[in-house]
Amino acid sequence: MHSNPPDLRPDLARARIPDDRRAGQPTIGMVSLGCPKALVDSERILTRLRAEGYAISGEYQGADAVIVNTCGFLDSAKAESLQAIGEALRENGRVIVTGCLGAEPDYITGAHPSVLAVTGPHQYEQVLDAVHGAVPPQPDPFIDLLPASGVSLTPRHYSYLKISEGCNHKCKFCIIPDMRGRLVSRPAHAVIREAERLVAAGVRELLVISQDTSAYGVDLKHATDRGHRAHLTDLARDLGSLGAWVRLHYVYPYPHVRDLIPLMAEGLVLPYLDIPFQHAHPDTLRRMARPAAAARTLDEIAAWRAVCPEIALRSTFIVGYPGETEAEFQTLLDWLDEAQLDRVGAFQYEDVRGARANALPDHLPAEVKQDRFDRFMQKAQAISEARLAAKVGRRIEVIVDEVDAEGATCRTRADAPEIDGNLFIDEGFAGLAPGDIVTVTVDEAGEYDLWGRL
Fold first, then answer.
1. What is the arrangement of strands in the sheet containing 117-118, beginning at the earlier edge strand?
2. How far apart are CA 209 and CA 150, in angstroms?
3. In degrees rounded to 5, what are phi and psi of residue 277?
4. Do the beta carbons of residue 433 and residue 399 sit within 8 Å?
5. DSSP conformational letter for 102
6. What is the DSSP code string of 387-452?
7. Which of 134, 171, 296, 344 is at 20 to 30 A from 400, Cα to Cα?
8. Residues comprising the binding site?
9. Tally of CA atoms within 13 A in the half-sphere of 306 that contains its CB
10. What is the pLDDT of residues 372-415, one digit of tens each?
11. Pairing between β-strand 228-229 and β-strand 224-225 as defined by DSSP bridges
12. Where do the structural domains in the chain lie, given as residue ranges?
């Protein structure tokens, strides 16, 4: 079994669509692009459609209309979304567009004037109205029974759990707050209730997501409702009591994050933090309009590791940001050497229409950005390889994602699905099934992946 280096673009999630339609049932196709937050939006739309009697298909052929849930994170992602819309129009002809790029309807209709409708992110009712207009529902109450857990676009054993929408940050390179609005947290009791349903339906791992997970509950003034307080630490503790793995994504390093680390040391939540550091040089961070405290961040990381030595840290960075000097970039490389992050991804800076960073002076040539990206990834890969090599000979817990004739593909507690590495079991895997959590001994390490045996 070969290694599978992680895709470093967090805006390239893909949905797995179940196909269980009955003869004559009105059918909607679905293409879900973008991050896991968009995937949750797709699941909610499909759950509503299933409840109204629609069948869901991952194929263009045989669908009465196709929904394309788009990404507008970067210009390259926008181009990919336009390409996906064009493909759906060619293959099916009846296309409804939603998602982040839907916040720019003229941009979409300028390229594809024949789309049936365009709606913005998390505008579920408008999407349903567009579907009703294109393909009227024909529910059969004796057949179209909705599973208690709704429609899932991920494997049965893990699920994304969105705890809030929007973001209060004003990073100059980002337009997501313009597309998705300011922070709106879900009530804690509603999050817990959804998590309980998921675990009851067989989910073994909950992946907590939002635009800014650390800020959860700020807009609610951390109020307590029906026994649950809207604060990340309380929410993590409550989720950890359900018996599933709990993994936290998109956590900004606010001071109160340190309160999560004892929960990780206790085993209530996974010892894993996904933190978007973006850069390390204070001048670059200031031009990004982000907190410029990289040195204190190193102290914070050291404090986290002192409490929970097993903690795995993932982050993404931007290289080639306007005005980034060679000295600033070297500071970033030196910071990586000190921080020793376990999992690292990077973007080359791109202008995004509407972002304030476009107006900054001293944009860098493409060849400089590519050179810095290559050097950055070389450094990150070397760190990953060394940290994984240190795990050889250790016994660790893994969750099984897939089993085929070649072996079992698993993930350690340090690996999120789709974006991190894998652990492969090549022998003695016949009795394993997706969702199993087992202990293995690590035999071999690569640049991103591990190999082990039961």
1. 55-57, 27-32, 65-70, 95-99, 117-118
2. 18
3. -70, -40
4. no
5. G
6. HHHTTTT-EEEEEEEEE-SS-EEEEETT--TTTS--EEE-SS-TT--TT-EEEEEEEEE-SS-EEE
7. 344
8. 35, 71, 100, 167, 171, 174
9. 7
10. 999 999 999 999 999 999 999 999 999 999 999 999 999 999 99
11. antiparallel
12. 27-134, 158-389, 395-453
> Which CATH architecture describes the domain 395-453?
Beta Barrel (2.40)
**Pick from 115, 89, 118, 117: nearest CA to 103:** 118
- Residues annotated within the binding site for [4Fe-4S] cluster are 35, 71, 100, 167, 171, 174
* Torsion region of 93: left, alpha or beta (phi above 0 gives left; psi -120 to 50 gives alpha): left
Chain position carrying tokens 């916040």? 103
Query: Does residue 99 sit in helix, strand or coil?
Result: strand
Low-confidence ranges of the chain (pLDDT < 50): 1-15, 141-149
Residue linked to tokens 């404090």? 303
Residue type present at position 272: Y
- Between CA 37 and CA 289 the distance in angstroms is 24
- Identify the three-state secondary structure at position 111: helix
- DSSP annotation string for 182-204: S-EEPPHHHHHHHHHHHHHTT--
Tokens for 318, please give them.
């931007």
CA torsion, ordered 231, 190, 174, 246, to nearest 10 deg: 70
Give the pLDDT of residue 139: 55
Q: Give the pLDDT confidence of 330-356 residue by residue, as tens digits.
A: 999 999 999 999 999 898 998 888 889
Q: Which residues contact 337 (CB under 8 A, 6 or more apart)?
A: 379, 383
Q: What is the pLDDT of residue 43?
A: 80
Q: Note whether 336 and 366 are within 8 A (CB).
A: no
According to CATH, the topology of domain 158-389 is pyruvate-formate lyase- activating enzyme (3.80.30)
Class of CATH domain 27-134? alpha beta
Q: Which helix (H) or strand (E) holds 345?
A: strand 343-348
Per the structure block, which two tokens stand in for 74?
Answer: 């970067």
Sort residue 400 into left (φ over 0), alpha (ψ -120 to 50) or beta: beta
Q: Are 399 and 411 in contact (CB under 8 A)?
A: yes
Strand 408-412 versus strand 272-274 pairing type? unpaired
Distance between CA atoms of residues 44 and 37, nearest Å: 11
- And the tokens for 23? 């003869």
